[in-house]
Automatic annotation (TrEMBL), chain A:
Keywords: ATP-binding, Cell membrane, Membrane, Nucleotide-binding, Transport. Pfam families: ABC_tran, oligo_HPY. Residues 10-258 form the ABC transporter domain. Signal peptide: none annotated. It is found in: Cell membrane. It comes from Levilactobacillus lanxiensis. PROSITE patterns: ABC_TRANSPORTER_1 (PS00211), ABC_TRANSPORTER_2 (PS50893). This is ABC transporter ATP-binding protein. Belongs to the ABC transporter superfamily.
TrEMBL record, chain B:
It is found in: Cell membrane. Keywords: Cell membrane, Membrane, Peptide transport, Protein transport, Transmembrane, Transmembrane helix, Transport. Residues 139-328 form the ABC transmembrane type-1 domain. It comes from Levilactobacillus lanxiensis. InterPro entries: BP-dependent_transpt_permease, MetI-like, MetI-like_sf, OppC_N. It holds the Pfam family OppC_N. SUPFAM superfamilies: MetI-like (SSF161098). Belongs to the binding-protein-dependent transport system permease family. OppBC subfamily. This is ABC transporter permease. It is a multi-pass membrane protein.
UniProtKB/TrEMBL annotation, chain C:
The gene is opp3b. It comes from Levilactobacillus lanxiensis. This is Oligopeptide ABC transporter permease. The keyword Transmembrane helix applies. It holds the Pfam family BPD_transp_1. Belongs to the binding-protein-dependent transport system permease family. It is a multi-pass membrane protein. The lineage of its organism: Bacteria, Bacillati, Bacillota, Bacilli, Lactobacillales. Signal peptide: none annotated. Keywords: Cell membrane, Membrane, Transmembrane, Transmembrane helix, Transport.
Length: 366, 341, 309
């Protein structure tokens, strides 16, 4: 591992899907780290490759998937080099996953107690009674009321929110090092969403797990994540801390995402959404995949792929706009406002801890 | 980092909206397929379905073509040529060369019958009738019965199912109960009863089969109708006051077509099977008319000594059933987006 | 559950009542009397026989009498064997039919499950191809063709099994194979489709994410979920076996009700045909009721709400 603070290091991952029309290049050279105990949010539109990334980590990709390059290091072991059989050891033990739709992700014909206890019996070789006792504890922990009486119920007897709690209980019962949550609240209604998110945060503290939190909704990221990676057309285009992404975004795609996100002080009028559609991954465009939808596109965007430009030690963005020769552009008003707020925050921070480094200039730098 | 790379002067020129639009359209759009095209593509990839389609085409052409050109008259009795085995010119394999084993010795049956110059590719039956012609004739009758019965069955089933699903509520419940009652008597028993009442013969077989096998179609169509009728365009048509009959033909039927086509492909072999069973039992088509069932029945009597007399009709019957089943499977896979690969 | 059961049993009775009524009046439409098969008789003899069969009463009285009799299992006297009550004929013949029918069902369903499940687990492999070929052949080859082939090749040529006789278990092997082929093929197809569907469902993905092995996923989650719906086709399979048995019993000379049915049809033995029709419907209704209840027991989603569909 490059850095022992990291629990997971994904490097240069490329995944193609073989289809009748050709290879769908779903993941195109993705790299990221997951630090111990942190929550990393991966944000992007539908089809940007978020789920494929998580499935690749879990070793559960569709049969037509072809991992053409890359490595996924977990505790100094490359998960991509593991056989199917070996991967079973990691799944549900070291790495667990919560799926999007709680209505369909539980076995309709198995009692939920047993479903929660299963990972214990599989990985710890526990006897059923003992595993069930532990499952009961877990049910209480995830907030299922009257757990004693409900342990023998079937999934259809629970509401969507309760089912998602059960799914979370299944994922966490072995205290995994890494929890992958693939849009865990998308299928739930808003009030329940908040409850589930709170529960996840709460449990993360209790059992100290790292979370990869997948969503296409930046709104839920703010309260959840420590760091954010923005994904577009199979690539990560910008990553940084939550504050950096929210208040000092550099990539025009991130600007678009943020502008289309409802905020408390947004006027409640129509939100501008990013015009156009993502590119066809069967034949991704040369240069920056976002160029065709990018109001700030440069000529070079159509010719050459932008490398990552460093914004700060923790913040990188892949856009030619950060090149020293690039023209200065003014982001949308909303983004400018955010950046101003960010500058103020930084100043306040500096004011508080006097003897620290000078204020970082967050204009076009380097 | 990358910013050390020297880039051409004009690299950082902004590009305007038109150029970007061009960027978008320059790319060849993914081959986006309509539902029908997609289904067609998948059907074409299905070798089994293709071969079946070709086989069925050949069977149809031969069975109905034999009305015009037939190697022999299927009903021409010729006792001196009775029970000749199959002889296909140019094939020397035992079983297809006109020889058979009699009293432990392989003899040329054609020579014995004084018919050395002739050949019957499937042999002859106990009355010396050309089996190949009879099989063609029998296939034709079986196909006619199956197709006509299926046509009726389709009409009844689709109408019943659409009506039941469209009306919903009490009428639907009663109509479904009726189907349940029909389904609680074995099909063949009902068919036999109906044939007894209507007097054995082709028409009564068709009626009997049609009257008993529409229930499956009705159920499938009903389920689909219930789903479709909640859809917006139908609701719109209803609120606009379009006549139910028009809605049924213009909006419902096209959306039911895949269900109907697929199920028809399974109804036809079923009808063929029932006809064959009836004729085999002896209350179906009777002599001198022939169907695959009667031919099987005739052949089975002598199976021990002259197995080819049953093998040929059995083979043809099985091939037809197989082809329809494979085609039905292929169509179902083609129409079902879930099987997308 | 009790309420549901009561309702189902009520429907069963209603169905049987309708079946009895329909067959009775259908039969009344038929030409021919018990005398059709007999030589010329004097007027008094005819009157006597009419009396014996109750044919001299008005139709509605005959109907009520028949109904009353049928409830008690009395279906009148056979035309063909004039001294035998239909009920005796049936009860002495139902044993062999039940035996080969049940054997065929059990064999077909069990082997079908194995074939179908293996096909689904190894999708698009040679195992799958073989399974598909087996099931499509089983569906395409009529049972009576198979019966003749089995009888000739396994029975006559190889001499492994007796043919056209009825005795112990060994006599049931060939008819069971002939009758079991279609249920085998149908259940293999059904299980394969169900299982392919189940295997691509979210809860199977979750089971894999738990770290269950391939076999664990199949054994603990996929099998049960794909086998439960199989119960719904047991009724249709039973119909298939009943239909097949009429011809297969004939071919193997099995003294069962299928053979009797064909015989009665060919000799216009209406009371026996009626009795058999009712018996067939009764058996089918019982199978349907049984599978319905079973479905309710094994599928938790139905068990709780207490209703099917
Ligand atoms: N088995 C597959 N075969 C072919 N293409 C696939 C397959 N699985 C995923 N893809 C393609 O890979 C791309 C990324 O899909 P992915 O499911 O990761 O998107 P996502 O970011 O999770 O979107 P969403 O927000 O809708 O869940 C999509 O273009 C999708 O069509
Ligand atoms: Mg996804």
């Amino acid at each position: 591992m490059e850095n022992d603070k990291n629990i997971l290091e994904v490097r240069n991952l490329q995944v193609n899907f073989k289809t009748y029309a050709g290879d769908v290049k779903a993941i195109r050279n993705v790299s990221f780290d997951l630090r111990k105990g942190e929550t990393l949010a991966i944000v992007g539109e539908s089809g940007s490759g978020k789920s494929v990334t998580t499935r690749t980590i879990m070793g559960l990709n569709a049969r037509n998937a072809d991992i053409t390059s890359g490595s996924i290091l977990y505790k100094d072991q490359d998960l991509l080099k593991k056989s199917d059989k070996e991967m079973e050891q990691f799944r549900g033990q070291d790495i667990a996953e919560i799926f999007q739709d709680p209505m369909t992700s539980l076995d309709p014909t198995m009692k939920i107690g047993k479903q929660i206890a299963e990972p214990l019996m599989v990985h710890k070789g526990m006897k059923k009674e003992k595993a069930l006792a532990q499952a009961l504890e877990m049910m209480k922990l995830v907030g299922i009321t009257d757990a004693e009486n409900r342990i023998n119920d079937y999934p259809h007897q629970f509401s969507g929110g309760m089912r998602q709690r059960i799914v979370i209980a299944i994922a966490l019962i072995n205290y995994p090092e890494i929890l992958i949550a693939d849009e865990p609240t998308t299928a739930l209604d808003v009030t329940i969403q908040a409850q589930i998110l709170n529960l996840m945060k709460e449990l993360q503290d209790k059992i100290s797990t790292s979370i990869i939190f997948i969503t296409h909704d930046l709104g839920v990221v703010a309260g959840m994540a420590d760091r954010v990676a923005v994904m577009y057309a199979g690539k990560i285009v910008e990553y940084g801390t939550v504050d950096e992404i929210f208040y000092n975004p550099k990539h025009p795609y991130t600007w678009g995402l943020l502008s289309s996100m409802p905020t408390l002080d947004s006027s409640g009028d129509e939100l501008p959404s990013i015009p156009g559609t993502p590119p066809d991954l069967l034949d991704p465009p040369t240069g920056d995949a976002f160029a065709a939808r990018n109001a700030y596109a440069l000529k070079i965007d159509t010719e050459q792929e932008p490398p990552f430009f460093k914004v700060s030690d923790t913040h990188y963005a892949a856009t030619w706009l950060l090149h020293p020769d690039a023209p200065k552009v003014t982001p949308p008003a909303q983004i400018v406002a955010r950046q101003k707020k960010y500058a103020e925050m930084q100043q306040a921070l500096v004011a508080k801890q006097r003897p620290s480094v000078p204020v970082e200039e967050e204009e076009e730098q380097q | 980092m990358a910013d050390t790379v020297k880039l051409p002067e004009d690299s950082f020129k902004r590009i305007n909206a038109d150029d970007r639009a061009a960027l978008d359209s320059e790319k060849i759009a993914a081959p986006s397929l309509t539902f029908a095209q997609d289904a067609w593509r998948r059907l074409r990839k299905n070798k089994g379905a293709w071969v079946s389609l070709i086989v069925l085409a050949i069977v149809f052409i031969m069975a109905f073509g034999s009305l015009v050109v037939s190697p022999h008259n299927p009903n021409a009795v010729n006792p001196s040529y009775a029970n000749l085995p199959s002889k296909i010119p140019g094939i020397g394999i035992n079983g297809f060369n006109g020889t058979l084993v009699q009293a432990g010795q392989r003899i040329d049956a054609y020579k014995q019958a004084g018919a050395s110059s002739k050949f019957y590719i499937m042999g002859t039956d106990y009355l010396g009738r050309d089996l190949f012609s009879r099989v063609l004739y029998g296939t034709r009758i079986s196909l006619i019965i199956a197709l006509v019965a299926t046509l009726f069955d389709l009409t009844i089933g689709v109408t019943y199912g659409m009506f039941s699903g469209w009306k919903g509520g009490r009428i639907d419940t009663i109509m479904q109960r009726i189907i349940e009652i029909i389904l609680s008597i074995p099909n063949l028993v009902v068919i036999v009863l109906l044939i007894l009442i209507l007097k054995p013969g082709m028409t009564s077989i068709i009626i009997a089969i049609a009257l008993t096998s529409w229930t499956n179609m009705a159920r499938l169509v009903r389920a689909q109708t219930m789903e479709i009728k909640e859809q917006e365009y139908i609701l719109a048509a209803r609120t606009l006051g379009e006549r139910p009959l028009k809605i049924a033909f213009k909006h419902l039927l096209p959306n039911l077509s895949s269900v109907i086509i697929i199920n028809t492909m399974f109804t036809i072999p079923n009808a063929i099977f029932f006809e064959a069973t009836l004729s085999y039992i002896g209350i179906g088509i009777s002599s001198p008319q022939a169907s695959l069932g009667t031919l099987l029945n005739d052949g089975q009597k002598n199976f021990q000594f002259l197995p080819y007399q049953m093998w040929w009709p059995a083979l043809i019957l099985s091939i037809i059933m197989l082809a329809f089943n494979l085609l039905g499977d292929g169509l179902r896979d083609a129409f079902d987006p879930r099987t997308k690969e | 559950m009790a309420k549901y059961l009561a309702k189902r049993i009520f429907y069963l009775i209603l169905t049987l009542f309708i079946v009895i009524t329909l067959t009775f009046f259908l039969m009344k439409l038929l030409p021919g009397t018990p005398l059709t098969n007999q030589a010329k008789l004097s007027k008094s003899q005819i009157a006597l026989i009419y009396e014996q069969y109750g044919l001299n009463k008005p139709v509605w009285q005959q109907y009520l009498l028949y109904l009353a009799g049928a409830v008690r299992g009395n279906f009148g006297t056979s035309f063909q064997f004039s001294d035998q009550p239909v009920s005796y004929l049936l009860s002495s013949r139902i044993g062999p039919s039940l035996q080969i029918g049940l054997q065929a069902m059990i064999l077909g369903v069990i082997v079908g499950i194995i074939v179908g499940a293996f096909g689904a687990m190894r999708q698009n492999s040679w195992v799958d191809t073989t399974a598909t070929v087996v099931s499509i052949l089983g569906i395409s080859i009529p049972s009576f063709v198979l019966a003749v082939l089995l009888q000739y090749y396994l029975g006559l040529k190889l001499g492994w099994f007796p043919i056209a006789e009825w005795g112990g278990f060994i006599y049931t092997v060939l008819p069971t194979l002939a009758l079991g082929a279609t249920p085998l093929a149908e259940s293999a197809r059904f299980v394969r489709t169900e299982m392919v569907d189940v295997l691509s469902s979210d809860y199977i993905e979750l089971a894999k994410a738990k770290g269950l092995s391939r076999t664990g996923v199949i054994y603990h989650h996929a099998l049960r979920n794909s086998l439960i719906p199989l119960i719904t086709i047991v009724g249709p399979l039973a119909v298939n076996i009943m239909t097949g048995s009429m011809v297969v019993e004939n071919i193997f000379s099995i003294p069962g009700i299928g053979e009797q049915f064909v015989k009665s049809v060919l000799t216009n033995d209406y009371p026996t045909i009626m009795g058999l029709t009712i018996i067939y419907s009764f058996m089918l209704c019982v199978v349907l009721l049984f599978t319905d209840i079973l479905y309710g027991i094994v599928d938790p989603r139905i068990r709780i709400t207490g209703k099917a569909n």
